[in-house]
Amino acid sequence: MEITMRPGLINSFTSITMLLVCIFLLFLSLAFAVQDSITSNESIKDGESTLVSASGTFELGFFSPGNSMNRFLGVWYKNEAHKEVIWVANREIPLKDSSGFLNFTQQGVLLLLNGNNEKIWSSNKTTNVESPVMQLLDSGNLVVKDGKDSNFILWQSFEYPCDTFLPGMMIGGNSQTGVDRNLTSWKSADDPGPGQFSFGIDRQGFPQLVIKNGTLKHCRLGSWNGKSFTGTPDLPRDQFLKYDFILNKTHADYSYEILRPGVLLTRLIVNQSGFVERFLRSIQNNNWTKIYWAPRDLCDSYSVCGAHMICKMVDQSHDCTCLEGFEPKSPTDWSEGCARRSPLNCTQDIFQNFTGLKLPDTNLSWYDTSMSLVECKDKCLKNCNCTAYANSNITGEGSGCILWFGELVDMREFSTGGQDLYIRMPPLKTDQTTSNTNSGKKKLLGIILGSTVLAGVLTVGLTFYIWRKKQRKQEIEEDMELPSFHLATIVKATDNFSSNNKLGQGGFGPVYKGTLIDGQEIAVKRLSKSSRQGLTEFKNEVILIAKLQHRNLVKLLGCCIQGDEVMLIYEFMPNKSLDYFIFDQTRNKFLDWQRRNLIIGGIARGLLYLHQDSRLRIIHRDLKASNILLDKDMNPKISDFGMARLFGGDQIEADTNKVVGTYGYMPPEYVVDGRFSLKSDVFSFGVLVLEIISGKKNRGFSHPDHCHNLLGHAWKLWTEERSLELLENMSDSPYSVSEVLRCIHVGLLCVQQKPEDRPNMPSVVLMLGSENPLPDPKQPGFFTERNMPEVDSSSGNHESSSINDLTISELHAR
Question: What is the pTM of this model?
Answer without folding.
Answer: 0.53
